Structure formats: structure tokens, C-alpha cells
Fold these 3 entries.
Entry 1:
Amino acid sequence: MDNGKETKRCQPLVEAMERYLQEGVYPLHTPGHKGGRGMAEPLRSLLGPSALRLDVSLMEELDDIHNPRGCLAAAQAAAAELYGSDAAFLAVNGTTGAIHAMLMMALRPGDKVLVPRNSHRSVTGGLILSAAVPVFAAPPILDGTDLQGQLTPDQVEEAFRRYPDLRAVVLTSPNYYGMAADVAAIAAITHCHGAVLLVDEAHGPHLGFHEELPPSALQCGADVVAQSTHKILGALTQCSLLHVRGPRVDRQRAADVVSLLTTTSPNYLLMGSLDAARAQLAADGHGMMARALAAARQLRRALAGLPGLRVLAPSDVVGRAGITALDETKVTLQLDRADTTGVALGDALRRAGLAVELVDPRHVLFLVTYADATDEWLGVCRRVRAVLEALPPWRGAPAGTVAPAPESGAGPREDRLPAAALSESAVPLRDVFYGQGETVPLSAAAGRVCGETVSFYPPGIPVLLPGERITAAALAACGTQKALGLPVSGPADPTLATLRVLRERRG
């Protein structure tokens, strides 16, 4: 089905940009490269004259992102209508910027917010900017893997029981691997307690457009949702959308916060790509997602039956570890063999001209979209299969079974999650960020306020987070995991002999 003409007719921002280009206006204004005339080679040729001429400043006919009344207002209204929100904002600082805004518009200094320990680092930034106080919750580990699941409704209910003054709940759904939380149940619990639900849906801007995909967070009752339109859809890298729905977050405050955090010189190529991606989805969303699902299934078939390797399916994850659905366009290959790692396999694929989305010690993640539904896709699937078949022979458990976890720690061990299931930050992250820090030996850090994140892979859930009071149990867990040889992530000292802590006033 060709929706090209229909799509083109409903891109208000792109249409305004096209009209401006056709007028042939000479730029007596910024940017300094003057429509590409002064751009250095080879970038000038790589980008092309039309793209460079559209790298313009705020022209009256192209509207103002800080006070949109024309084509930008129409583009944002069209995005809100498509997704079912009350207001949508074009976010040109990625979903990181959208999440910063999401937390600032929903929270005031001192407000408590429930945050999964495995949230994206942008949530930490939003907590610093909002001066909110996090209550951390550890998501369960999916049995048979080292993958983190989702916060469960029971965990959220327990959090409100212990912290009745929680003002908001943050979810990441779906996660990197396409595993969705029970957003509807958590939304109902959150709203029952008078709080707002904030969802990092960076990996789900395509959800809700096909019945075989999980429902979107907005469909499930979320109040504010941040989406990476560039990750799955057709927008340029760095382009995201931020949605507000319902009465729990004031729309004018939302607009004020977005304006505060948005550059006064937004790139129109980025914003135009958001408008175009939205229009494409509006015209053919179901067909796009059907093609993505079909391409993903072709890859899944190509990966089937390899000894010591298996592809995670909905039956492996749904109904466990807080997971209610799986986006099957995220194809996760699990290594149930002890003689190689996901990192090594990712390197082998890259040497064969194939770049994957993510690797960890035990998994390789392939991201499949509607754009993969091309004549070359079956050839790509065969190339991936050929790389895997070239792995050295492995004499172990039959394909599809889980090998015992080796002593080195590469396999799943749920006892490696020593962090408390629910813990309140001792100091707001804003105070840690602006406070004076110092470095102390790890052995002397008990009782101090942590100044950095400490995680071990697998499973990647932080043992220590900034603002937390460091316990003897957490230090013991760090020592145990260091002894296992697990890679550490987060601290300035990668050996973890020392740790950054907050210098606190004594007496």
C-alpha cells in the first residue's frame, strides 16, 4: 500500500519548511554556514544542498517552539491526536531531555517518587533538576536469565503502604528487551493513591499500532510518557515526543518546563523529521508494524535450532518477573553456553558487517523495524545465521536448554541482587550533585552517603546509587561480586578499591 501522497498532505511543519525552501530566501541571519555555502567538505556534499538550506533559525513562517501558534503547534496537535494525549511536545534533546522535563513538571522539591533501580541515567538527571527524593525499588530478575524484569503491582502497592507520601511512580516500559510492565494495573494503584504515573517509553513509540504488540502506556492510563521516536520509527537520531494526558499534570506547567529545557535554536531538520515520522505512522501504522513483526519472525526462524543458543519468546517471559507482554520486534539471543559471551558474539557479527543493538555477557539484542522489510533482509538473516554457525563446536546441553551457571559468574544467580527491595534515598540527588564529595577506601565507606552508582554485570541492577546510605551488607555484596570477577560499571575507580561519597558536616 502506497501512502506517500496521503502522508505528505498531513505534515504541517514539513510543508512549511518546503515552502520556505522554494522561496529561495537569502539568509542574512544565522547559522553562519549560510545555507551550506560555507560548510566544510566532505560534510557539505554528504548532507546535500537542500538539507543544509533547511538548517535555519527561527523564521516567522516556521513558528516558535517556545510559543507555537502555527505549523509547530499543528505538528504537536497532530502528534497528540495520533497517540491519544492531551498535549504533545517535540523533544529535540532526545528522550533524556523529555524525561528531565517529565520529572520536573510532575514533582516539586522534596516530593518522593518511586523509581526502579535500573532506570535510565536520565532519571537521575531529572531527580537532580527537580530536587525530588527517590524511593528505589529493585525489579525482579527473570528466572533462567540475567535480565531484569519489571516492577510488579504488588511492589508498587507495598511502596505506597510504606511511603504514603509518594507523589509519583516512574516506570520503564517496555525495557530494552521489549518486556512490558503491567502499566494498567500500576496506573490504577498510582491514581488510587493520588499520585501520577510517569513512563519512560523510549523503546515503545510504535506500541498501540498493532494488536500483536503490547498496548501503549497512554492506552494503559499513564499521565506523562516520553518516547524515542528515533529508536523505532522514522525520525532522525535525537528526536523524541513527550505526552501529557489527564488532569493530574497541569498542561501550562508542562509547557513551561519544556520551554525551560529546550534550546532557543532548535534544529528544524530534527523537528521536521518528527513531523514526518508521525505522519507516516498515522497513514500506515498498522502496516508498518505488520512488516516489522514479519521481519522479526524471519530473523527468529533463522536463529532457531542452534546448539547452545536460544531466542527468547513470549512464553519465556510473559507472566513472570512483572512482565505482561513482549514486543517481538526485539529479538534477544541468549547464550546457554559457557565458552563464549554476548560481547564476543557481537564482535564477530560486527567483523561480518553486522552491527547489533546491544550485547551483555550472556545476550545479544537485535532491533528489527518496519525499515527491515526489504529485499535484502533475508540475506541479512542468512548472514547472521552463518556467523553463529561458524562458532566453535560446543559439547553441552541440547539447544534450547539452560546450561549450568559457571563459577565465573556468567550465568544467572538471583542471589547477586543484594540491594534492598525498597529503599529511600538518604539525601536528595540534587544535594549530592551540588555537595562536596570525597574519595574514601571502599572498606571505610559504611555509613557514608554514596556519591556514585555501582553496578555489576550481570545483572546490571545497581548495588549502590547516589544519595543512598551505604550499608555493611552492600559493601559485602560489592566484595563478593568483585571476587566473582564481574565487570563493574559506574564508579570513577573501576577497580572499586575506592568510592566517591558525600562529605557531610559533622556535629
Note: The chain has a mean pLDDT of 90.
Entry 2:
Amino acid sequence: MKELTVGKNDAGQRLDRFLGKAVPLLPASLAQKYIRCKRIKRNGARARRDDRLCEGDTLQLFINDEFFDAPKPENAYLKVGAPKLHIVYEDENILLVDKRPGLAVHPHDGAEYGKTLIDHIQAYLYAKGEWNPRGENSFTPALCNRIDRNTGGIVIAAKTAEALRVMNQKIRDREIEKYYLAVVHGAPRPAEGELKGYLFKDAVKNRVYVTDKPQPGARTCLTRYRTLDRRDGLALVECELITGRTHQIRAQFAHAGHPLLGEGKYAKPDKRYGRSYQALYSYRLVFRFTTDAGALEDLNGRSFRVEAVDFVEEYFPGFAY
């Protein structure tokens, strides 16, 4: 329990607004709940959120110590309040989450403090009691893979240090198959095949360039694809990432003359469809371990997919995938 004494400069404020400044890590929704549950009191008595504070008032706060820390990237999860996750699968080691387009996975993707996928995951595990940051020396739940902000799909989160180590190794060894759905302009020829090339990343411009021949600093990129359906000048394709380069699918299909629907970085936007972000979704994962996976061995041979993909429903209604 912490006590706060209202000073002269804080007098006259509403209780809820005062708490937002005095305890910035406490989400407004959680503050309201704590007031209703009498975990926040004024002068030892029940308080209301719209109480006007007076100089000398004493507030008793029966909340966890973590909320009194200074705001910093490591405790951004405390700002989440009620985490919102679309969980595909969960066990004691990992969490598979269907990230929706528009949500950044990490703060360094330009997202607001406390509003990223990892913040929501950490808030979820903290609320469940599966992660106690004060009881850990160094480990925090972490993401094993990333997806662009405006791309949706399955993201793997590790709940334990062993799961993080093993999963990262499996990804490096390509023992996890990653399948994407995409809508592209035109009809790829052949209908099923591979896109091979060399990809160079320009970190300053945050974009990549694909060439057909090796270039200094360029890395090999390979995507397998198959056309699933064609309608009205668009094609629905399934892509399997063999290499996992930045913006690989987007850049390779644009280079092949079939940019993704909604693409704005690697092709001129097609305003006919009114789509503001690329039609690309990491919809299925398959675990095919060829070496020991330790605590994750039960995942071997299993496949997971999202329930639905918005652009498939919109542009290819009735398609069963």
C-alpha cells in the first residue's frame, strides 16, 4: 500500500485525473476499477472518480508496486490495462497470436508507448500471473518473429527463456514453415512456381530492392507460390517463405509485375479498390523439427492457422482455404 498526500498545486483536481499524472503507469480503466473496488481510498473512506481533491487529502492506494515505477520501455505493458489478443494457440511455453493489420509488434516500429503487440502479450501474461517481472533477473516474454505493421498474421511469443532459445534456433534452421496469403494484380505465370532473386535493403529509406543478378550487399531471396483463385483481374496466391527477408513477398511480386493489392511502397497505389495497406497475411505455421526441440517437442508436426483473413472474405467470398 502507498499513501499520497495532496499538495497545494494538486488541489482542485478530480481524483481520476490526478491519478493519471501521479501514477502514469496505471491505465485509466484499471484506475476506475480500483476506485470501485475500494482499492483506492480518500482519507480512509470510499472515493469516487470525480471527487475534487483538497490540499492535505491522503490517498491510500492498494495496488501493485510495479505501477509506481517510472515509465520506461521495459514496463510499457502496465499501460495496456485490458490486453486485447487474438490467440491461435497457447501452452506453458509459447503463445501464437493472430496480429491484426495496423498493430506494430515493437515500440521501435514507431508505435505509441504501451500500444504494441509485445506490450499486450506481456500485460496478458502479467494479469494471468504467469510472468512476474520482479521475480525475474533478466527474462521477459519476447517475440520470436516479426510481421510488418500493416501485415497481419501469426506471431510467435515465448513465455520462457528455453522456449525463446529453442524457437529462435528452429527459425534460423528453417524448421518452421511459414505460409502467407496475398492478393496480387494480374495472373502470375506460371500459376505455381518460385520467385528467385537478390534483395538489397536500404535502411535509411526503409525499403528493399530486388534484382535478378547478384549485387554487392544483396542477399538471396526465394519465395514459393501457388495461385489459389482468380477473379476480376486479381489473383489469390499462397506464398511459402523459404528465406525471410524484409518485405520479401511485397518486393518480389512487385518486381515480377504483380504487385500486391493495396501496395503503396513498391508500386503505385491502385485507388480503384480503396485499400490503404497491402493484402498480405501470415495465415499458417507448420512446425517440422528435425532436431531435438526440448520443451517444444510436442509441437513437432503440428499446423496452426488463423480463423479468417479479411481480404479473402472481401475479394474472394466463398473461397475455402
Note: The mean pLDDT is 91.
Entry 3:
Amino acid sequence: MEQTKPTGIDRVIGHLCSIDDMRHVCPTRAGEGEPLLSGGDVRRIVELASRLMFPGFFNESYRGASVIRSVMTLECDELFSLLVRQITAGLCFDRDNCDTALSDLRRHATECAEAFIESLPAMRHTLDTDIDATYLGDPAAVSTHEVIACYPGFRATMSYRIANRLFRLGVPIVPRMITELAHSDTGIDIHPGASIGHSFVIDHGTGVVIGATAIIGDNVKIYQGVTLGAKSFVTDDSDNPVKGIPRHPIIGNNVVIYSNSTILGRITIGDNAVIGGNLWVTRDVAPGEKLIQARADNFRSSR
């Protein structure tokens, strides 16, 4: 039986298609053939970068050492093409590029894609330190292989390091898409603009939040529910937050932050400090200082 088109659908579509009715218009360039941002492509970028850095761990099949170089070459070519397309799309979305020729954006995207791929060996070296630190610090970890294959903290950290490299290359939007995909998958929210040193560990991880201007040193371990956030915002004349001002904590080397602690503002947690669980911290913590729940109200320390 033939279905009848709902009354008024043409009128609704007319309103939805009307540029005059759109407050937020996708920044396309009609007729130029520019790419659009794709969540599927961005997820595939993370998958391919992960597979290239850790062959066999993120593949559905493994064809053996005799063909691994050929397979990796094909995957690298695919990664390069996806990067160029999605970086170009991100650049098209940036208002600063409205008057830039699409050919120039593609050329810049190609340079960024090449620089990203060239950084994969160094990125893997840093991730190796994260894997080793996670394995050595967790008595439940059977092997480093288990960390790579199973641990959400490592998955989120790997996505962050991929996103952060693109962020440092000046790529807009795509890095945030990468970390938000990881956020959806793991419950761990790391802004790609954060700065994180080597041997980083997120244990369990659910509910972890790390803000855009946070700086984290080497050999830092944080547990589930930890927030490295902003205490307050500088506002403009319209009472809107001013963008780009450092507002998140600086965490020193060899720091441990236990579960559900909230650290706010541009404060410094000194080297070798320990922050106990369920604390609210809004002032500097000295190197080697230990904050514990029993003394949290008056911020006295136990050394």
C-alpha cells in the first residue's frame, strides 16, 4: 500500500533548508569539493595510528612477519589520505581560513599529515613508558600486553597523545574529536591541549577529567574520578569566559593523586607530592607534601 506523504513536510523542509533560519551554518564552500568532518574517518585515523605503532594489538587478523611491512605500508598510505582529508576539513571549519584558497589548505594539511606520520616512532617510545609504568604500578596487571589490549587508561592516553600531536601541529577540531571519541569509549576526558609527560598512568580511569591548560610532569599516576579543573574564569565585558588563559593545575614529577580528588585552578602540586582520595584542593602543595582526608579541612599536611 502506497504511503501518503505527511501534510506540511515540504514546509518543514523549506524551513530547515533556509539559511535565514539557521543560526549555526556548516562552513562549506559550495562547488569547491571541500571535505567535511567525519566521525568515522577520525575514528579510523586513531585505529590506523594505533595499529602502526603496535602491530597485532588492534588488528582483526595478523598475517605474519613475512608480510607485515607490506600491510603497514598500505595502512600508512590510508592513514595519510584520511589525515589530509580530515585536516583539510578542520581547516575549512576554522573562521581564520575563510579567505584562504582550498588548494592552500590542502597543501598545509598535507604538510601536517606528513609531520604527524613522521612522529609515530617517537610517539610509540613515549607510549612505551606509559605501558611500562602502568604494568609496574598495578599488581593486577599480568603483562604489558594486557595493558595494551585491555586497559582503558592506556587507550585514553594513546588517543590523547595522537590528538595532542595534531593539536601541536595547529590542526583545529580534529584533535578534540579524537579525545571525545575516547571519552565516550572509556569515560576519561583529556583535552588535547593538555601537556603530559612520560610514564603517565591512569588507573581504572572512569570519571577522570584533565583540562585544556593542565601541565602534568613525568611519572604521574592518577586514579578514577580525579579532576584537574579550573577554579574560576576571567570574563569579558559580556560576562563570558576569556579564552586561552592558563587556568588548570600544574602537576610536578612523581605525583600520585588518589580517587575522586578535585584539584582546581592554576596551582602547583610539587614533585613527589601525594594527594589522598576525596579531597578538594585549591592551593599549592609543596614538594613531598602528603594531603590526607583526616586533615583536609584545615589543609594540614602529613609528611
Note: The longest strand covers residues 201-203.
